[in-house]
Amino acid sequence: MMRPLYTLAMLGAQPLLRRKLRRRGVAEPGYLEHVEERFGRYEGATQPGRLWIHAVSLGETRAAAILVDALRREQPGLRLLLTHGTATGRAEGLRLLRDGDAQAWLPWDTPGAVTRFLNHFRPSAGVLMETEVWPNIAALCKAQGVPLALANARLSEKSLAQTRRLSGLSRPAYGSLSAVWAQTEADARRLAEAGATVKGVFGNLKFDATPNGAQIAQGQAWRFSLGRPVVMFASSREGEEAEFLRALPRDAGVQWLVVPRHPQRFDEVAGLVAQAGFTVSRRSAWGDSPERADVWIGDSLGEMALYYGLSDVALLGGSFAPLGGQNLIEAAACGCPVVMGPHTFNFAEAAELAEQAGAALRVSGMEEGVRRGVAVAKDHRDITQACLAFAAAHRGAAAKTAAAVLGLLRA
């Protein structure tokens, strides 16, 4: 079996993990908190029987928030254990906690750490969000009788190819899950091929999110007072910003806005803009209104609805480099048209449906993306309505997933 070899590799990598946490903690101090939890060592007593939900990072935690709201509507007294893998995910997860809930880091996937985690918290069941399936966690949950499901599940063709190469490790992991609830029929097919028991295709939870109306209104008010269109590069990734800056015309008559995907890169991206010869203004320095500059930097967390309200169009980060694209659903729900590059394999069906609905445009590369973005920004009224209609048409996953999770608890 491959799992013992995998476990040896994970054990050998633990010193590297500690070093990585120290390095990341320089930019994000959250990585330096509760470090021993990563190795299955948890302080204090805890109450058994919570529903465990694992949301590795910011995007998964936001999807988990939608599920949590639906669960609490059905079962108000439900107690939760939230686990995460990133500092941004854990910070976002704090907002979801109520009396009786708990929060922790997911342990490093070694048998000892996972066993300590399960023995300490003794969850009634576990729900992994989207993609996070770990071999030892899956196997030990099954061995201890803890039902474990994968919700809002997706698996790209690229990821499926990786699971095929490691089928001796991945198939038993997927096969140990009690249930998988997929986003799309294509995801369901790929997950089944990977060895999962798919028990439903519910759609994407993120369609059920309600954007922050106050943020949208504030962003729109700033945009209308500006007097010129705003083109945003939303959730930009490393390597994409430099290409974006090279493609920017100096006299397009629009305001440029860049919102990096990862907060630890805010300073780096601001530096890239300045090095390219553009003036820079950062959201963190604004008072009652944005400051004048060639390029604005959206360097805040939890304000994407404000940025979409502020923008006439958004270029989709992660889609102009072979990174699979970021999620475009929030943009559509805010009525912001999207221009996406060629690489959207992480959200292939949502991207295709958005394009078919007229809520998104596909381009071949960054230069074309900037040109189309400017054109859309100057006349996007029909596309805005298409965005809102597209977002409304695909809601309903939260209620279906919540019912399935509660069924798992009763099983």
Write the SSE topology.
Blueprint: H1 3-12, H2 14-27, E1 51-54, H3 58-74, E2 80-84, H4 87-93, E3 102-105, H5 111-121, E4 125-129, H6 135-143, E5 148-153, H7 157-165, H8 167-175, E6 179-182, H9 185-194, E7 198-201, H10 213-226, E8 230-236, H11 240-247, E9 255-260, H12 266-275, E10 280-282, E11 295-297, H13 304-310, E12 313-316, H14 329-333, E13 338-340, H15 348-356, E14 360-362, H16 366-378, H17 381-393, H18 397-410
3D structure, described in words:
The strands form two sheets. A seven-stranded parallel beta sheet has the order 3-2-1-4-5-6-7, sandwiched between helices. The protein is of the alpha/beta class. The model has no long low-confidence stretch (mean pLDDT 94). The protein contains 18 helices and 14 strands. Helix 6 (135-143) runs parallel beside helix 8 (167-175) and helix 7 packs across helix 8 (167-175). It is globular, with a radius of gyration of 22 Å. It folds into two domains: 23-203 and 396-410, Rossmann fold, CATH 3.40.50.11720; 213-393, 3-Layer(aba) Sandwich (Rossmann fold). The longest helix has 17 residues, at 58-74. It has helices spanning 3-12, 14-27, 58-74, 87-93, 111-121, 135-143, 157-165, 167-175, 185-194, 213-226, 240-247, 266-275, 304-310, 329-333, 348-356, 366-378, 381-393, 397-410, and strands spanning 51-54, 80-84, 102-105, 125-129, 148-153, 179-182, 198-201, 230-236, 255-260, 280-282, 295-297, 313-316, 338-340, 360-362.
